From TrEMBL:
PANTHER family: HIGH-AFFINITY BRANCHED-CHAIN AMINO ACID TRANSPORT SYSTEM PERMEASE (PTHR30482), SLR1201 PROTEIN (PTHR30482:SF4). This is Urea ABC transporter permease subunit UrtC. NCBIfam families: urea_trans_UrtC. Its main location: membrane. InterPro entries: ABC_transp_permease (IPR001851), ABC_transptr_urea_perm_UrtC (IPR017778), LivM-like (IPR043428). The chain crosses the membrane at residues 27-44, 56-75, 95-121, 181-201, 231-255, 267-290, 310-330. Keywords: Cell membrane, Membrane, Transmembrane, Transmembrane helix. CDD domains: TM_PBP1_LivM_like. It is a multi-pass membrane protein. It comes from Gordonia westfalica. It comes from the Bacteria. The lineage of its organism: Bacteria, Bacillati, Actinomycetota, Actinomycetes, Mycobacteriales. It is found in: Cell membrane.
Protein backbone atom coordinates (compact mmCIF):
# COMPACT_ATOMS: atom_id res chain seq x y z
CA UNK A 1 0.00 0.00 0.00
CA UNK A 2 2.93 2.34 0.60
CA UNK A 3 3.94 2.09 -3.05
CA UNK A 4 0.40 2.89 -4.18
CA UNK A 5 0.30 5.91 -1.86
CA UNK A 6 3.60 7.19 -3.25
CA UNK A 7 2.31 6.69 -6.80
CA UNK A 8 -0.85 8.66 -5.96
CA UNK A 9 1.20 11.57 -4.61
CA UNK A 10 3.40 11.58 -7.71
CA UNK A 11 0.43 11.45 -10.08
CA UNK A 12 -1.89 13.92 -8.37
CA UNK A 13 0.54 16.42 -6.82
CA UNK A 14 4.06 16.26 -8.25
CA UNK A 15 3.34 15.69 -11.96
CA UNK A 16 0.70 18.46 -12.37
CA UNK A 17 2.98 20.91 -10.56
CA UNK A 18 6.11 20.18 -12.58
CA UNK A 19 4.90 19.25 -16.08
CA UNK A 20 3.58 21.51 -18.79
CA UNK A 21 0.16 20.87 -20.31
CA UNK A 22 1.78 19.11 -23.28
CA UNK A 23 3.89 16.80 -21.09
CA UNK A 24 0.96 16.15 -18.78
CA UNK A 25 -1.13 15.06 -21.77
CA UNK A 26 1.70 12.72 -22.79
CA UNK A 27 1.75 11.26 -19.29
CA UNK A 28 -2.01 10.70 -19.51
CA UNK A 29 -1.40 8.71 -22.71
CA UNK A 30 1.26 6.64 -20.96
CA UNK A 31 -1.12 6.02 -18.05
CA UNK A 32 -3.59 4.42 -20.48
CA UNK A 33 -0.90 1.90 -21.42
CA UNK A 34 -0.09 1.37 -17.73
CA UNK A 35 -3.74 0.44 -17.06
CA UNK A 36 -3.49 -2.27 -19.71
CA UNK A 37 -0.18 -3.42 -18.23
CA UNK A 38 -1.69 -3.83 -14.76
CA UNK A 39 -4.21 -6.31 -16.18
CA UNK A 40 -1.51 -8.17 -18.11
CA UNK A 41 0.49 -8.43 -14.89
CA UNK A 42 -2.43 -10.26 -13.31
CA UNK A 43 -3.11 -12.59 -16.25
CA UNK A 44 0.50 -13.27 -17.28
CA UNK A 45 2.49 -12.67 -14.12
CA UNK A 46 0.17 -14.50 -11.75
CA UNK A 47 -1.77 -16.71 -14.14
CA UNK A 48 0.93 -17.64 -16.64
CA UNK A 49 -1.23 -16.64 -19.63
CA UNK A 50 0.94 -14.94 -22.27
CA UNK A 51 -1.71 -12.52 -23.55
CA UNK A 52 -0.50 -11.25 -26.93
CA UNK A 53 -3.93 -10.00 -27.96
CA UNK A 54 -4.78 -7.25 -25.49
CA UNK A 55 -4.93 -4.82 -28.40
CA UNK A 56 -8.31 -6.35 -29.27
CA UNK A 57 -9.92 -5.36 -25.97
CA UNK A 58 -8.10 -2.01 -25.94
CA UNK A 59 -9.36 -1.32 -29.46
CA UNK A 60 -12.89 -2.42 -28.68
CA UNK A 61 -13.22 0.10 -25.85
CA UNK A 62 -11.47 2.78 -27.93
CA UNK A 63 -13.64 2.42 -31.00
CA UNK A 64 -16.86 2.44 -28.97
CA UNK A 65 -15.78 5.68 -27.30
CA UNK A 66 -14.66 7.15 -30.64
CA UNK A 67 -17.96 6.33 -32.32
CA UNK A 68 -19.92 8.00 -29.54
CA UNK A 69 -17.73 11.11 -29.63
CA UNK A 70 -18.11 11.40 -33.43
CA UNK A 71 -21.90 11.11 -33.13
CA UNK A 72 -21.95 13.74 -30.37
CA UNK A 73 -19.79 16.12 -32.44
CA UNK A 74 -22.13 15.69 -35.41
CA UNK A 75 -25.15 16.46 -33.22
CA UNK A 76 -23.46 19.63 -31.94
CA UNK A 77 -23.01 20.77 -35.54
CA UNK A 78 -26.62 19.90 -36.38
CA UNK A 79 -25.67 16.99 -38.64
CA UNK A 80 -27.24 13.55 -38.62
CA UNK A 81 -24.01 11.68 -39.41
CA UNK A 82 -20.30 12.23 -38.57
CA UNK A 83 -18.08 14.14 -41.00
CA UNK A 84 -16.40 11.03 -42.46
CA UNK A 85 -19.81 9.66 -43.48
CA UNK A 86 -20.88 12.97 -45.02
CA UNK A 87 -17.75 12.89 -47.19
CA UNK A 88 -18.63 9.33 -48.23
CA UNK A 89 -22.18 10.42 -49.16
CA UNK A 90 -24.01 8.61 -46.33
CA UNK A 91 -27.10 10.33 -44.94
CA UNK A 92 -27.93 8.06 -41.99
CA UNK A 93 -26.00 6.14 -39.38
CA UNK A 94 -25.21 2.45 -39.99
CA UNK A 95 -27.22 0.16 -37.74
CA UNK A 96 -24.26 -0.77 -35.51
CA UNK A 97 -23.55 2.93 -34.83
CA UNK A 98 -27.06 3.73 -33.59
CA UNK A 99 -26.79 2.23 -30.05
CA UNK A 100 -23.74 4.40 -29.30
CA UNK A 101 -25.79 7.55 -29.79
CA UNK A 102 -26.64 7.26 -26.10
CA UNK A 103 -23.76 8.06 -23.71
CA UNK A 104 -25.14 5.57 -21.17
CA UNK A 105 -25.20 2.74 -23.71
CA UNK A 106 -21.69 3.67 -24.88
CA UNK A 107 -20.27 3.58 -21.35
CA UNK A 108 -22.02 0.30 -20.56
CA UNK A 109 -20.71 -1.20 -23.81
CA UNK A 110 -17.16 -0.13 -22.93
CA UNK A 111 -17.47 -1.78 -19.53
CA UNK A 112 -19.26 -4.95 -20.69
CA UNK A 113 -18.31 -5.92 -24.26
CA UNK A 114 -14.54 -6.47 -23.77
CA UNK A 115 -15.23 -8.65 -20.74
CA UNK A 116 -17.96 -10.62 -22.52
CA UNK A 117 -15.70 -11.23 -25.50
CA UNK A 118 -12.89 -12.35 -23.17
CA UNK A 119 -15.33 -14.64 -21.33
CA UNK A 120 -16.42 -16.35 -24.55
CA UNK A 121 -12.86 -16.70 -25.82
CA UNK A 122 -11.52 -17.78 -22.44
CA UNK A 123 -14.09 -20.51 -21.97
CA UNK A 124 -13.56 -21.75 -25.51
CA UNK A 125 -9.78 -21.84 -25.14
CA UNK A 126 -9.14 -22.83 -21.54
CA UNK A 127 -11.84 -25.51 -21.41
CA UNK A 128 -9.96 -27.21 -24.23
CA UNK A 129 -6.74 -26.94 -22.22
CA UNK A 130 -5.03 -24.66 -24.72
CA UNK A 131 -2.10 -22.99 -22.98
CA UNK A 132 1.50 -21.89 -23.34
CA UNK A 133 2.76 -21.00 -26.80
CA UNK A 134 -0.48 -22.17 -28.42
CA UNK A 135 -2.52 -19.68 -26.40
CA UNK A 136 -0.01 -16.90 -27.18
CA UNK A 137 -0.18 -17.59 -30.92
CA UNK A 138 -3.98 -17.76 -30.84
CA UNK A 139 -4.32 -14.45 -29.02
CA UNK A 140 -1.83 -12.80 -31.38
CA UNK A 141 -3.73 -14.08 -34.40
CA UNK A 142 -6.90 -12.63 -32.90
CA UNK A 143 -5.26 -9.19 -32.68
CA UNK A 144 -4.07 -9.41 -36.29
CA UNK A 145 -7.54 -10.45 -37.50
CA UNK A 146 -9.17 -7.61 -35.57
CA UNK A 147 -6.85 -5.03 -37.16
CA UNK A 148 -7.55 -6.42 -40.66
CA UNK A 149 -11.30 -6.30 -39.95
CA UNK A 150 -11.08 -2.63 -38.98
CA UNK A 151 -9.11 -1.74 -42.09
CA UNK A 152 -11.89 -3.18 -44.23
CA UNK A 153 -14.62 -1.07 -42.61
CA UNK A 154 -14.83 2.35 -44.32
CA UNK A 155 -17.72 3.46 -42.08
CA UNK A 156 -15.32 3.53 -39.11
CA UNK A 157 -12.49 5.16 -40.98
CA UNK A 158 -10.78 2.12 -42.48
CA UNK A 159 -7.01 2.30 -42.18
CA UNK A 160 -7.20 5.98 -41.13
CA UNK A 161 -9.38 5.25 -38.12
CA UNK A 162 -11.42 7.89 -36.28
CA UNK A 163 -10.03 11.27 -35.25
CA UNK A 164 -10.70 14.99 -34.91
CA UNK A 165 -12.84 14.78 -31.77
CA UNK A 166 -14.16 18.13 -30.54
CA UNK A 167 -15.89 17.32 -27.26
CA UNK A 168 -16.00 14.78 -24.45
CA UNK A 169 -19.46 14.37 -22.89
CA UNK A 170 -20.17 18.05 -23.31
CA UNK A 171 -16.67 19.33 -22.42
CA UNK A 172 -14.58 20.96 -25.12
CA UNK A 173 -11.34 19.08 -25.80
CA UNK A 174 -9.65 22.28 -26.94
CA UNK A 175 -9.83 23.72 -23.41
CA UNK A 176 -6.59 23.08 -21.44
CA UNK A 177 -8.58 22.79 -18.21
CA UNK A 178 -10.63 19.95 -19.65
CA UNK A 179 -7.50 18.19 -20.88
CA UNK A 180 -6.11 18.37 -17.35
CA UNK A 181 -9.39 16.89 -16.17
CA UNK A 182 -8.81 13.95 -18.51
CA UNK A 183 -5.37 13.46 -17.00
CA UNK A 184 -6.78 13.32 -13.48
CA UNK A 185 -9.49 10.89 -14.61
CA UNK A 186 -6.86 8.61 -16.14
CA UNK A 187 -4.67 8.83 -13.02
CA UNK A 188 -7.63 8.02 -10.76
CA UNK A 189 -8.59 5.03 -12.92
CA UNK A 190 -5.00 3.75 -12.76
CA UNK A 191 -4.97 3.91 -8.96
CA UNK A 192 -8.33 2.12 -8.75
CA UNK A 193 -7.16 -0.57 -11.19
CA UNK A 194 -3.95 -1.14 -9.21
CA UNK A 195 -5.96 -1.50 -6.00
CA UNK A 196 -8.32 -3.99 -7.67
CA UNK A 197 -5.37 -6.00 -9.01
CA UNK A 198 -3.79 -5.93 -5.55
CA UNK A 199 -7.00 -7.27 -4.01
CA UNK A 200 -7.10 -10.10 -6.55
CA UNK A 201 -3.41 -10.92 -6.19
CA UNK A 202 -3.35 -11.16 -2.42
CA UNK A 203 -6.69 -12.88 -1.94
CA UNK A 204 -7.40 -16.62 -1.84
CA UNK A 205 -8.21 -16.37 -5.51
CA UNK A 206 -4.73 -14.96 -6.15
CA UNK A 207 -3.15 -17.93 -4.38
CA UNK A 208 -5.29 -20.29 -6.44
CA UNK A 209 -4.28 -18.50 -9.64
CA UNK A 210 -0.59 -18.96 -8.81
CA UNK A 211 -1.24 -22.60 -8.01
CA UNK A 212 -2.89 -23.08 -11.40
CA UNK A 213 0.11 -21.45 -13.06
CA UNK A 214 2.61 -23.70 -11.30
CA UNK A 215 0.73 -27.00 -10.83
CA UNK A 216 -2.43 -27.04 -12.92
CA UNK A 217 -3.06 -30.77 -12.71
CA UNK A 218 -2.64 -30.81 -8.94
CA UNK A 219 -5.22 -28.03 -8.63
CA UNK A 220 -7.57 -30.07 -10.79
CA UNK A 221 -7.15 -33.07 -8.49
CA UNK A 222 -8.07 -30.85 -5.53
CA UNK A 223 -11.49 -30.25 -7.07
CA UNK A 224 -11.02 -26.88 -8.78
CA UNK A 225 -11.50 -26.22 -12.48
CA UNK A 226 -8.33 -24.42 -13.67
CA UNK A 227 -10.18 -23.10 -16.72
CA UNK A 228 -12.59 -21.09 -14.56
CA UNK A 229 -9.71 -19.69 -12.52
CA UNK A 230 -7.90 -18.55 -15.65
CA UNK A 231 -11.03 -17.06 -17.19
CA UNK A 232 -11.51 -14.69 -14.24
CA UNK A 233 -8.01 -13.21 -14.65
CA UNK A 234 -8.38 -13.07 -18.44
CA UNK A 235 -11.72 -11.25 -18.20
CA UNK A 236 -10.33 -8.80 -15.62
CA UNK A 237 -7.38 -7.98 -17.90
CA UNK A 238 -9.76 -7.42 -20.84
CA UNK A 239 -12.01 -5.22 -18.69
CA UNK A 240 -9.08 -2.99 -17.74
CA UNK A 241 -7.86 -2.85 -21.34
CA UNK A 242 -11.28 -1.73 -22.58
CA UNK A 243 -11.39 1.12 -20.08
CA UNK A 244 -7.86 2.15 -21.04
CA UNK A 245 -8.83 2.24 -24.71
CA UNK A 246 -11.86 4.42 -23.98
CA UNK A 247 -9.66 6.91 -22.10
CA UNK A 248 -7.01 6.83 -24.83
CA UNK A 249 -9.37 8.27 -27.48
CA UNK A 250 -10.14 11.71 -25.98
CA UNK A 251 -6.60 12.03 -24.58
CA UNK A 252 -4.74 11.29 -27.83
CA UNK A 253 -7.45 12.34 -30.28
CA UNK A 254 -7.22 9.41 -32.67
CA UNK A 255 -7.71 5.66 -32.85
CA UNK A 256 -6.77 3.54 -35.84
CA UNK A 257 -6.01 -0.11 -36.65
CA UNK A 258 -2.32 0.66 -36.05
CA UNK A 259 -3.16 1.22 -32.37
CA UNK A 260 -4.88 -2.13 -31.80
CA UNK A 261 -3.02 -4.73 -33.85
CA UNK A 262 -0.14 -7.08 -33.16
CA UNK A 263 2.57 -4.49 -32.55
CA UNK A 264 0.66 -2.54 -29.86
CA UNK A 265 -0.16 -5.84 -28.13
CA UNK A 266 3.53 -6.73 -28.08
CA UNK A 267 4.36 -3.24 -26.80
CA UNK A 268 2.04 -3.77 -23.85
CA UNK A 269 3.83 -7.02 -23.09
CA UNK A 270 7.33 -5.53 -23.32
CA UNK A 271 6.57 -2.95 -20.65
CA UNK A 272 5.22 -5.63 -18.32
CA UNK A 273 8.24 -7.89 -18.84
CA UNK A 274 10.75 -5.09 -18.26
CA UNK A 275 9.01 -3.78 -15.17
CA UNK A 276 8.47 -7.19 -13.57
CA UNK A 277 5.40 -9.21 -14.42
CA UNK A 278 4.98 -10.97 -11.07
CA UNK A 279 4.86 -7.78 -8.97
CA UNK A 280 2.06 -5.32 -8.37
CA UNK A 281 3.64 -2.06 -9.51
CA UNK A 282 6.31 -3.53 -11.79
CA UNK A 283 4.06 -3.73 -14.89
CA UNK A 284 2.81 -0.19 -14.31
CA UNK A 285 6.29 1.28 -13.89
CA UNK A 286 7.62 -0.75 -16.82
CA UNK A 287 4.83 0.43 -19.14
CA UNK A 288 5.35 4.06 -18.14
CA UNK A 289 9.12 3.79 -18.59
CA UNK A 290 8.98 2.05 -21.98
CA UNK A 291 6.39 4.40 -23.47
CA UNK A 292 8.26 7.44 -22.15
CA UNK A 293 11.52 6.12 -23.60
CA UNK A 294 9.85 5.38 -26.92
CA UNK A 295 8.46 8.92 -27.17
CA UNK A 296 11.66 10.63 -25.98
CA UNK A 297 14.33 8.56 -27.69
CA UNK A 298 12.48 8.03 -30.95
CA UNK A 299 12.54 11.80 -31.44
CA UNK A 300 16.36 11.72 -31.44
CA UNK A 301 16.91 8.23 -32.87
CA UNK A 302 13.90 7.46 -35.10
CA UNK A 303 15.42 4.37 -36.67
CA UNK A 304 17.42 3.14 -33.70
CA UNK A 305 14.76 2.97 -30.99
CA UNK A 306 13.16 -0.19 -32.36
CA UNK A 307 16.46 -2.05 -32.19
CA UNK A 308 17.20 -0.70 -28.71
CA UNK A 309 13.77 -1.81 -27.54
CA UNK A 310 14.31 -5.31 -28.91
CA UNK A 311 17.73 -5.60 -27.27
CA UNK A 312 16.32 -4.37 -23.96
CA UNK A 313 13.53 -6.95 -24.10
CA UNK A 314 15.98 -9.76 -24.91
CA UNK A 315 18.33 -8.68 -22.10
CA UNK A 316 15.55 -8.58 -19.52
CA UNK A 317 14.00 -11.91 -20.56
CA UNK A 318 17.38 -13.63 -20.87
CA UNK A 319 19.18 -12.31 -17.81
CA UNK A 320 16.53 -10.73 -15.54
CA UNK A 321 13.34 -12.77 -16.07
CA UNK A 322 11.72 -11.14 -13.03
CA UNK A 323 12.22 -7.67 -14.55
CA UNK A 324 13.57 -4.55 -12.92
CA UNK A 325 11.35 -5.07 -9.89
CA UNK A 326 12.91 -8.52 -9.46
CA UNK A 327 16.40 -6.99 -9.36
CA UNK A 328 15.35 -4.64 -6.57
CA UNK A 329 13.72 -7.50 -4.65
CA UNK A 330 16.89 -9.60 -4.99
CA UNK A 331 19.03 -6.79 -3.59
CA UNK A 332 16.72 -6.38 -0.61
CA UNK A 333 16.75 -10.11 0.06
CA UNK A 334 20.54 -10.21 0.04
CA UNK A 335 20.70 -7.35 2.51
CA UNK A 336 18.27 -9.12 4.84
CA UNK A 337 20.07 -12.46 4.58
CA UNK A 338 23.48 -10.91 5.32
CA UNK A 339 23.34 -8.27 8.05
CA UNK A 340 26.23 -5.90 8.51
CA UNK A 341 29.22 -7.48 10.23
CA UNK A 342 28.17 -11.06 9.58
CA UNK A 343 30.95 -13.41 8.55
CA UNK A 344 30.28 -15.13 5.22
CA UNK A 345 31.11 -18.72 4.30
CA UNK A 346 33.78 -17.52 1.94
CA UNK A 347 35.54 -15.69 4.76
CA UNK A 348 35.57 -18.88 6.84
CA UNK A 349 37.34 -20.90 4.16
CA UNK A 350 40.94 -21.76 5.05
CA UNK A 351 43.63 -19.79 3.30
CA UNK A 352 45.66 -21.98 1.00
CA UNK A 353 49.41 -21.71 1.54
CA UNK A 354 51.46 -21.32 -1.60
CA UNK A 355 53.44 -24.43 -2.52
Amino acid sequence: MAGVAVAAVLLFAVAPALLSDFRLNLLAKFICFAIVAAGIGLAWGRGGMLTLGQGVFFGLGAYIMAMHLKIADAANRGDSVPDLMKIAGLRELPAYWVPFTSPVVAILAILVLPGVLALVLGLGVFKRKVKGAYFAILSQALAAAFAVLLVGQPTIGGSNGLNNFRSFFGFSLSDPANRRMLYFIAAAVLIVVVLLVRQLMFSRYGELLVAVRDQEERVRFLGYDPANVKVVAYVAAAFFAGIAGALFVPIVGIISPNDVGVMPSIMFLIGVAIGGRTTLLGPVVGALAVTWAQTSLSEQFPSGWTYAQGLLFIAVVGFFPAGLAGIAALRRRRVVEQPAGEVTDKELEPVKEPV
